[in-house]
Amino acid sequence: MLKTILAIAGRPGLYRLVNRGKNMLIVESITTKKRTPAYAHDKVISLGDISIYTVEDDIPLPTVLESVKAKSNGQPVDIKAIGNDEAVREYFAEILPDFDRDRVYTSDIKKLLTWYNQLLEGGITEFAEKEVAAPKSALESEEK
Q1: pLDDT tens digits, residue range 86-121?
Q2: How far is CA 108 from CA 25, 42, 54, 72, 132, in A?
Q3: Three-state DSSP string of the chain
Q4: How many CB atoms lie within 10 A of CB 4?
Q5: Is the torsion defined by CA of 53, 59, 64, 67 positive or negative?
Q6: pTM of the predicted model, to two decimals?
Q7: C-alpha span between 128 and 124 (Å, rounded)
Q8: 42, exposed or middle or buried, with CB in 10 Å at 0-12, 13-18, 19+?
Q9: CB within 8 A of 53, min separation 6: which ones?
Q10: Between these two residues, 61 and 2, which has the higher pLDDT value?
Q11: Per-residue model confidence (pLDDT) at position 129
C-alpha cells in the first residue's frame, strides 16, 4: 500500500504516484489532491522503502505505522500535546520499545508521526500489506 506513497525532499506533505513520464513522475498531494511533476533530480523516496533502526534489526515503516495506529486507536496523534523532545521519545518507546536511541532522532519520530496524521487525513488507514494465502500446489495436495 505504501509503495505508491512518496516523500519528496524540499516539499511538504506526502504524495501519491499517479503516473510516470519521461524523466519525471506525476504525483498528487495526499491532502490537497493537487497534481505536480517530480523530476529526476528531486530526491523521491517511497514510504514502503523506509525502515526504522532498532537495536537488533530494522523494522519496515508500514509495521511501525500499524503500531502507531494501534496505540492511538486509529486517531490522529497530537504531537504538540505529547510535549518536549524527551516526551516524544518516551511516547515512541511505547510504540517501538527497542528502537535505536542513538540513530533515531527526535526529528525522525516527529516526521513519522506527521506522516501518520497526513495518511489518515488522506483516507489511508491500512499501512501494511495484507498477506494473501497462496494456493496449494498439486504436489503439496498429493503429499497429504
Answers
A1: 999 999 999 999 999 999 999 999 999 999 999 999
A2: 25, 20, 13, 18, 32
A3: CHHHEEEECCCCCEEEEEEEECCEEEEEECCCCCEEEEECCCCEEEHHHCEEEECCCEEEHHHHHHHHHHHCCCCCCCHHHHCCHHHHHHHHHHHCCCECCCCCCHHHHHHHHHHHHHHHHCCCCCCCCCCCCCCCCHHHHHHC
A4: 13
A5: negative
A6: 0.84
A7: 11
A8: middle
A9: 99, 100, 103, 104
A10: 61
A11: 72
Burial class of 34 by CB neighbour count within 10 A (0 to 12, 13 to 18, 19+): exposed
Determine the Cα–Cα distance for residues 120 and 14; give it in Å rounded to an integer: 11
pLDDT value of position 131: 54
pLDDT for residue 144 is more than 50 = no
Place of cell 488507514: 125
Contact between residue 91 and residue 82 where contact means Cβ atoms under 8 Å apart: yes
User: Per the structure block, which three cell numbers stand in for 143?
Assistant: 503429499
Determine the Cα–Cα distance for residues 55 and 42; give it in Å rounded to an integer.
31
Which carries the bigger pLDDT value, residue 51 or residue 144?
51
User: Residue 126: which pLDDT band, with cuts at 50, 70 and 90?
Assistant: confident
